[in-house]
Amino acid sequence: MKNLEKIIKDAKSSNKFKEGLKEVRSNIKGSKLIIVSNSLLNSDKQFIEKSCKEWKVPLYYYGDNSIKLGRLFNKPYRISSVALKSVEDDDVTALLATQ
Question: For the whole model, what pTM was predicted?
Answer without folding.
Answer: 0.94
